[in-house]
Each structure stands twice: as C-alpha cells, then as structure tokens.
Task: inverse folding
C-alpha cells in the first residue's frame, strides 16, 4: 500500500533528449509521462527546470561485505588483486555481524543520496559461520523500502579449493541469497576452474537461479573461462541469465581468438560487467611499461549486441581505497579507459550504469514509462553526457513516488574584480557570442 500523495515533476528533460516533459507518479508507479500533464488534486508539484530526469542508477557488481573496511587490519601495500584477497582473508576472522551491518547500511545511505537504488552485491561464502551472508540478508531486509539489494553467493577463495565451500554456498542459497557466483580463474588449475563453472551453472539451473561469476579477472590471455561459461549457459538453457564479470583477460587476448569468442558470448546471450575503476587500478600491476589497461573489450562487446554494464565493485576496502557510491564516476572512468568519447559512446556509458545494469539484475518495472516503478532521479545536467562530465548533483531522488533524498545544486558565486557577481554551475549555456549554440 502506497498512500503518498501524487508527485508531479514538471518541465524535465529525458535521457533520449525529449524536453518539456512532465512525469506523474501515483501509488508507487509512473502514472503518466508527457507534456503539460494535469495535476491531480493534492499532488506535490516539482519544477525540474529542464534538468535531466532519469531512472535511477543501478550497480551490477559490488562487494557490500568488504565496503568501508579500508585500513582494517592494514592497507594493501602492493595494490594487487592477490594481496587484496589475502588481506580480506586476514580481516574475515575479525569481522562481527554488527560491524558488517553497520558499514553496509552506511554505504546504502550513500547510494541513495547518489541516486543508486539497486545494487547486486557479491557476498563471500567461504567463512563457515556465513557471518557476512547473515549480515547482508539482514541489510537487504532493512533497506528494501528504499534500495533493491540482490545478493550473489561468492566463493572468494574458490569453490573447489577447500572442502566445505560448496556446502556453504548451497546453505547461503537456502538462506535466500539470490544468485550463484564463482571465481574460476582463482581455482587451483584451469581444469578445476572449468569444472567449477560447470558445477555452479548446473546448480543454478537446478534451482532456477541466475549466475554471475568473477571470470578471468587476470592479465593472463590464456585465462579463457568465459568460453566455458558461455558453453554451459547455452547447454543449460540459461541464456540471458548468466553474467561474466570482469573478463579482463580479454584485454590481453589474441585478436584472432577474440574474433571467435565474442560471437560465442553473444550466442549464449551472456551479459558482461566491466568494473572500470577497479580494472584500471588492479590490472597491469605485473607489467613494467607499457602497462596494460586491463579492462575488457567494451565497445567490441556492445557492437556485437551483448549487454554490457559497469560496476563499482569496491569502495574503501582491501582492493580500493577510494569511491563514494557514485556511478557517474564509474561511467566516467569506463568512458576514458575504453576511449568511448564519441557522442554515441558517451551515451552508452550512461546506459551502462542505468538500463544495462537493470537488465543484468532482471529488475522489474525499471524505467520512466507509464506502469514502471516510480523510482527516478533529477540530475543537475541537461544530457547524459553532461551528467558524466560533471558527476552531476542528484537534485532529487525518488523511490516509489516519494522523495528520499535532496541535494543542493552545485554552484559557485564569483565576485570578480570589475565584474558583476555571477553564479557558475559548469553547464554550458548558449550565449549570443557563440551564435546561441552551446558548443
Ligand atoms: Fe568483484
């Protein structure tokens, strides 16, 4: 039951460029979208002043159990993935459920303030106590009114490396974790990696669940588990329900092999998540110069019709010291690393943190069309590309038709000698000197 008053947003611009659009939210859903909508009695009316109205950000790849633990019990000195995994292993015995819940809830507050209303988080199942699983299930329940949290049972240390991990993973699924995870490149051998992919896909198929594996997060061009993932997705009828996360080894692969691999991924309808902030930070660490970027081949995957999303992956944890739940920062890094600087490429980077990720999570009712859930945000930008360029303020964040966060516009007041005081907000305004055209 949603008894919030109707909410009418006036004079918004949509990501597709349509301007002067109103959106009416009623009973938790989008009731109407179009120009000059009539205001129902009792409606709360907000003038969007032409700012960008978008469905919320979605993060398709995150680790909420390690988030905000930076410095515990020490920092990652080498900056590598492997030291991060070792450091997480040192921290795990020291974790308490209370501290896990506390950090995760704080992150979810940051997320909402940034217009990030759906997160797929991996949760480590290697700990026999399943402490993190229990903590994040509790967090999922508590944040449900304002954030969709989808959990992936993730065997961080490999599902086949230690007896008991598979049983832990199954227990996590029994407790309500949504998605089956894996990490084939971290199993002992390539054969065991391939066996883990088969085993975990079969487990997901038997339970009717989606799959999302950390896959080939390596600079080793011979790390080719994604082909096995595509094979089993196809064989088990899991098309569209399997995600390969990272796929960084594809950056270093031979072009001839990739020309075979990408069509296999497309055929199996695998979805792909790149994690630009983390990939550019962790990959290439064993190189001298030139140092490889290490992110997977995003434009080429998109060109083959494959759905590619961008994830944040880490915020202030053993792998990454930075971050603040800002999916526009993620999109900006993806844009730079993949050199997606064309007009179409910039728009694709915005889609990669919104609609593409929503598809990966399988979110119901995502979008601004009538009938969709009334989840959206107002950004202090006129276009998706400008939102990325400015890491635009989230002026308003709405969940189920109710405002859940407001942010002040980013402006500076200039008092320059010899000039009248004026405000600057970094958006490009048309001016007579430029022929009235913003360039
Ligand atoms: Fe990850």
Result:
């Amino acid at each position: 039951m949603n008894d919030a008053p109707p909410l009418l947003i006036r004079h918004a611009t949509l990501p597709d460029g349509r301007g002067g659009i109103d959106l009416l939210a009623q009973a938790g859903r989008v009731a109407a979208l179009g120009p000059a909508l009539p205001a129902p009695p009792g409606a709360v009316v907000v003038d969007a002043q032409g700012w960008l109205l978008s469905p919320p950000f979605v993060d398709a790849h995150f680790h909420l159990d390690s988030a905000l633990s930076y410095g515990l019990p020490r920092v990652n000195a080498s900056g590598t993935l492997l030291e991060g995994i070792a450091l997480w292993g040192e921290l795990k015995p020291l974790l308490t459920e209370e501290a896990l819940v506390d950090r995760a809830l704080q992150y979810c507050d940051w997320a909402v303030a940034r217009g990030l209303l759906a997160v797929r988080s991996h949760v480590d199942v290697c700990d026999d106590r399943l402490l993190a699983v229990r903590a994040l299930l509790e967090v999922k329940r508590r944040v449900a009114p304002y954030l969709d949290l989808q959990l992936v049972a993730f065997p961080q240390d490999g599902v086949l490396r230690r007896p008991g991990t598979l049983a832990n993973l199954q227990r996590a699924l029994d407790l309500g974790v949504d998605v089956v995870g894996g990490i084939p490149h971290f199993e002992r051998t390539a054969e065991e990696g391939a066996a883990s992919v088969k085993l975990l896909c079969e487990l997901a198929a038997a339970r009717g669940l989606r799959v999302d594996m950390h896959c080939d997060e390596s600079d080793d061009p011979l790390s080719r588990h994604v082909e096995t993932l595509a094979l089993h997705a196809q064989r088990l009828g899991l098309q569209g329900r399997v995600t390969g996360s990272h796929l960084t080894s594809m950056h270093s692969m031979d072009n001839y092999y990739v020309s075979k691999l990408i069509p296999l991924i497309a055929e199996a309808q695998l979805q792909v998540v790149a994690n630009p902030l983390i990939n550019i930070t962790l990959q290439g660490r064993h190189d001298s110069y030139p140092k490889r970027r290490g992110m997977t081949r995003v434009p080429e995957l998109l060109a083959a019709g494959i759905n590619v999303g961008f994830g944040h992956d880490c915020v202030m944890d053993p792998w990454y010291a930075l971050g603040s739940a800002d999916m526009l920062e993620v999109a900006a890094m993806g844009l730079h690393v993949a050199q997606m600087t064309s007009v179409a490429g910039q728009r694709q980077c915005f889609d990669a943190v919104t609609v593409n990720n929503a598809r990966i999570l399988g979110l119901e009712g995502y979008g601004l069309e009538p009938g969709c859930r009334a989840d959206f945000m107002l950004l202090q930008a006129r276009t998706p590309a400008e939102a990325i360029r400015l890491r635009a303020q989230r002026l308003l964040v709405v969940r189920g038709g109710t405002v859940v966060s407001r942010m002040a516009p980013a402006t500076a007041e200039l008092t320059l000698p010899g000039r009248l005081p004026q405000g600057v907000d970094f958006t490009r305004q048309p001016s007579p000197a430029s022929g009235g055209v913003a360039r």
In short: The CA atoms of residues 242 and 270 lie 5 Å apart.
